[in-house]
Every structure is written in structure tokens, then in C-alpha cells.
């Protein structure tokens, strides 16, 4: 059995899978071409198209992350090979921490206190009660549902949205186009945790940003393509005048790294982080790769990526 890896830290991954799969030949995309041929399984993140050349006997592909948009867009991706992606793998707790921090950043006026500090202005503000700060979470998958749960446990009214009906304890769930409009009209912070698919790209555009209450805030730790960055900058206003939105906390972007000429770098109402909200825990990820390969080898049926829906 041959397993071919493509990701950063190739040797770390080779060592981890060699330890876990001693019966397998573990090769990497940096090995000579003759060593990469005829792999049984691929474990990859954003692979180049040439990686799929001379791979006529592939049995399965493990996507080394939760987002499969880059993999599905890769030319020469075999049509009939099953794909599995990493499940939560321990990413939900740090993601929930990040989002809770972001919500508190705006609810407790830390964004405004930063401005006061720069102006040497001493101006305590009245605290808005959590019960008066509804939060919307778009995307109620393995990670989004845990984020919504954490926010609800922290005392915020939480509204969740998904394409299809879902039910979560202490979360008001919405679905479909009507549900999306409903949730946008009533939340003070919107959190985007949807996958990157043809149906979600640019979902948060100028029209939908305008549906948010004036002074609302946006947190995007999901996928950069979900938010129209030009429309967001317009909605935020400028250094002279606040726009329809009060502020944004952004961890993901349409282009990464964020280009030096992006106005988001310099916008006074934007806080940026470099796609660090929920890094994949390495050991848990390696365990999931091995689990998937063992299941395929045993002839078991796995929950695979639906290529038409994009997740």
C-alpha cells in the first residue's frame, strides 16, 4: 500500500504516517516522480494538478482540512475516487474561543476603547447586556454548531442558519433564503462559518450587509470568499465617518496572504488576523487519516464529500 502526501511539513507528516502505518510505503510530493506513481491513497492539502498524474489505481483521497474548495477545483482530479475531509479534529474549541473573543470585543466596546486610548481620552461606557446582543452564526456544521453552543452558554441570544432545517439546544435555527434574511435583520454580530461553495461565494454582499441593523458587526473566521470585501469596506465607512457597519474582525480573505495594497490593512474599523483562528491539531489529523485508510482497506463505507454541493 502506497500513501502519497502533499502539504506543508512533509517530513513531519511522513514520520507520523510511517509510525501509524508501518505496513505502508509513505511517499511525499517532494520525492522523485518514479516514487510517487501508483499511489493507493492521497493525503493532501491544496494539491497541484500534476500530483494526480500516473495515479490510475487511487482508492481514496483524504483532504487535510475541513475546506475542500481548493481540492475540488484542482484540474485532473479523478472523478470517481471518494474524498473524505478532516472532521472537527479538535478545531471547534479554538474557533469558539476566537469567535467569543470577537463578540466580546464589540459587545464590551473594546474597539471604541482602542480609539479612546490613541486619543488619550478617558471615557467609560455603559455595558450593553449580553441578553441585548443577539449573535447570528451562518453555518451549523461540526464547527459552527459548537461555536453557536458556546455563545449561547456564554449568555448571548444565538440565531443559527443553514441551508436545510436543523435543531440545536438554546439556538434559534433558521434555514433557506427567507431564514437568511430573517437572521440578518436582527443580529448585532454576524459570524460566517459556511464552506466555500459556488452557492456561498460572495453570499455576504452589499445587499445582505445592508440588511444588518445599523451599527452591526461582522466576524469572518470561515472562508474568505464568503464576504464581498469591496462591499464590506464600503459598508464600514472611513476614518472620518462610520458607515452602516460598526466594525469587523477578519481571519480569512479572498486572497491569502492579504495583499499589501488591500484597504483592509489600514481600515480603522477592521481587526485582522492571519488565518489562525482554528489551526488543525496535527496528531488528531494524522489519526483521522489513518482511520480513513483503515476503513477503506476494510471495505467500510465512509461519509464522503459531495462534489456537487462542495462539502
Q: What are its keywords?
A:
seven-stranded parallel beta sheet; alpha/beta
Number of helices: 10
Helix content: 25-40%
N/C terminus separation: 27 Å
DSSP strand tally: 12
Mean residue pLDDT: 96
What structural class do you assign from the helix and strand content?
alpha/beta
Strand order of the largest sheet: 8-7-6-9-10-11-12
Q: What's the alpha carbon Rg, rounded to whole Å?
A: 22 Å
Largest sheet: 7 strands, parallel
**Strand/helix succession:** EHEHEEHEHHEHEEHEHEHEEH
Strand content: 15-25%
Estimate the global geometry from the Cα principal axes. Answer: elongated
Low-confidence stretches: none
Descriptive account of the structure:
The protein has 311 residues and is α/β, with parallel strands linked by helices. It has 10 helices and 12 strands. Helix 1 (10-20) links the parallel strand 1 and strand 2 (25-28).
